[in-house]
Write the structure tokens for this entry.
Amino acid sequence: MKGKKLISLALSLTMVLSLAACGSGETQPTSEPSGSAALYTAGTYSAEAQGMESTVKVTVTVSESAITDVTIDVSGETTGYGADIGDAMKEAVMEAQSAEVDGVSGATITSDAVKAAVQKCLDQAMGKEDATADGYQPGTYTATVAGHNGDMTVEVTFDETSITDVKVTDHKETYGLGYGLNTSPVEALPAAIVESQSLAVDSVASATVTSAAIKQAVADCATQAGGDAEALKSAPVDRPAPADETYDVDVVVVGAGAAGLAAANTALEAGANVLILEKVGVTGGSTTRSGGKILGAGTPWQEAQDFEDTPEMMYEYLMSFDRDGIMDEDLVWAFCENSAENIQWLVDRGVKIQDVEPIHSSLTPWRVHNVEGGGGQTSGHGGQFCVPLTNAYEEAGGKIIYNCRANELLTDESGAVVGVKGEKSDGSIVTVNAPAVILATGGYAHNEEMMAKYSDFLPTNAYSGVPMTNVGDGIEMATAVGAKNFDAPGLQLVYVSYDCYCGINEESGLIVSEDGNRVVNEWSYQSHVAQALADADSTCGYYITASKDGQCVEPYPTLAGGIQIESVPHASTIEELAGLIGMDAAALQATVDRYNELCAKGSDDDFGKPAEYMIPVEGDTYYAFRMTPGSSVTFGGLQIDTGAHVLDTNDQPIPGLYAAGEVAFTGLFDAEYPCCGMAIGSAIYYGRVAAANAVAGQ
């Protein structure tokens, strides 16, 4: 509700400012001009237009001279964004008496769909005939548009009356999201557009930017061919009528990320009848968007790079993060003991492991394993896990129901879980009867209520790169049937500058809290730095550095580029710099003086940073890079045992209910994230364990 009020307020303020700017003394027309000829045929009219993730539906009621009511259905759009703009857009249309209104910032595509649908209704009311998309100059045309990760080129072939072929010939989209799967936009949308002869086909939920780019390119080509692109955008699409469905299976898996795909493959290979319910239009969840890293000890890849490692060593490292005594030794050990076999299981199903890298250069042995093409602090490589697992599952006959949000666990009179119920994007209900339900629904990074407990240091998680659908629905379903839900003291966290991206690439200069205090040895893993800032209840951090004669005094390329950005706060003195960022000047000056003193001494007596990384903040210009917090992995949630059974509030297994992955990270983490690859590795391992026990009835 707060989001709706803010959107409405912002839109209203925009209108007020616009009216004030147009104050030329002209009289504004009233909504019911006296004596005017009839503009509309009075009545109620309906129309649709394609939004970001769904079909936006609008109904407009008019008198002969005015719009008297507007109903807008954007319920299929993203919660917190497009799904929240209905009231604001209605208010704007009613105020303007027109479809020509400003859209809502952050929900442009949904706003445009609302405006297009309103205009269609008004055109009907004015007796205008629908445009047709018929009529093209035969040939093949090419358009280049902006995709999610860069330019995309699409080639479209027309005959005199229709689109005969659509091909995406070049792109930089994310593997396993924009392309690589049967349901990805690059693979699925071209055929859908040709079949329907329309650009009003559904976008692929969770890959909507790529979907929109393909549609834009086809529209551009249609215009080049002399066709009516606007008519093509609204041409009707034949969709089947919504119909409820019921399935009877051995195992139902809710969610098709790393944990869910591992579980589904394991159960299917064991001979079970398996069904996956996936909330969006592609598999992969958060994993696909990740850097594609997995943790393991004692692997051939470590041996090839001359690192000796054992499960015992990895266990000791992970348990060193148990500062609050809440990590489960058995859960952690089971993962460590089986981590090498866990990676080999993936390789046997088509996943390609490239090499190993350090958690941080200060830590050995290296045990973070990269998939092919990965390495370093990059994202978008996780599809190398999920595409092979999706293909293996579907090629073996496994079924996935896409665009279906599970919302209720079914139980019998004894309290055992015996199935799950969900709702598809078309409103139809899916009921799955199964003696075993495996929850693999991910975390709650985009659930504002669940994230509120971290607001002292993370007031918003809008910068998180995980799917907007990570809202903790698996946790809510399970707690409704008596499962324990643990509120973890922390979560995976990074503080990063969105100017130069320092904070995640081992830059190790002076970092201070928003109060101007140094709180950590900066030559340490990014999540350790972040946790120190979080412990100080700092809603941001600042990387303080200097330049001399135009050259950064530190050797990091990110900073060398960053100091060239004019908008980055910079000044000739620390006192002046503090004023630019709203920080107490005396506090920041004292921190810089102390840091420089330790640099000169060659010993970090405060936090133990190695002397070679102690570079004084001295020069002719000083800079402050604001570091914003964000989280991609949430901790806590459901509690499982080493058999992946979900425990109730009395620490007893709930019959028929299993969980794996981020929905059930209680016991695997404390407050601080220990390293890359732990989340994906443990999710895959416990997904496999859950499935094995589910099939065995244990």
